[in-house]
Every structure is written in C-alpha cells, then in structure tokens.
Amino acid sequence: MLKRTFLIATVASLFVVPALADGNMVKAEVVKVDKPAGKMTLKHGPIKNLDMDSMTMVFRVADPSMLDKVKAGDKIEFEADRVNGAITVTKIGKAH
C-alpha cells in the first residue's frame, strides 16, 4: 500500500508542480531579436516578480540559444529575473 501511495503522490506532483512553476510567466510579443548582442526586445505584460508594469523594453537572455527559437512578431510567454544586476529572460516558450 505504501508503494502505491508514493506512486500516486509522485504522479500527482507531475501535474501540480508545472502549474505552480508557471506563476511568473508573462505574455509578450517579440519586437526584435538581436543575436549578436544576446538581447531581444519584448512588448510585455506586467512582470509581478520584478514589480514592473507593461511596456516595451530590451532584455538580455540567460542562454543565447533562446534567440534561435523566436522571431519578430512571435507571441511568447517568458520569465525574467535580475541576473548580475541586469533584467534577464530566464525561461521562454510559445504563448498558449
């Protein structure tokens, strides 16, 4: 019985954790991608964890390969945080 309970709890956590992890995802539109500079310009909604209102601004990206996944005009969802003092996109995905 203990193994079955553990298995059920583990499977249930697979569905709960991603929903909680998406709490800081922000909807945006890609305005510009600047691969040489490792930056992208986003027109985004409010970023709650940074106490930032909606606006259009340039972001650094944590991983330059993120820029290969997007182009101007794409609708995305992203997470951003302060990394070494710069506001940086740390996670990116297509908007749902």
CATH fold-level topology = OB fold (Dihydrolipoamide Acetyltransferase, E2P)
Number of strands: 5
Major sheet strand order: 1-2-3-5-4
Pick out the low-confidence regions: 5-21
Largest sheet: 5 strands, mixed, barrel
What CATH architecture would you give? Beta Barrel
Order of helices and strands: HEEEEE
Number of domains: 1
Instruction: Estimate the strand proportion.
Output: 35-45%
Describe this structure in words.
It is a single chain. This protein has 96 residues and is an alpha+beta fold. The chain has a single domain (24-94), classed as OB fold (Dihydrolipoamide Acetyltransferase, E2P). Helix content is 21%, strand content 42%. The chain is built from one helix and five strands; from the N terminus they run αβββββ. It has one helix at residues 2-21; strands at 26-34, 39-44, 55-61, 75-83, 86-94. Strands 1-2-3-5-4 form a five-stranded mixed β-barrel.
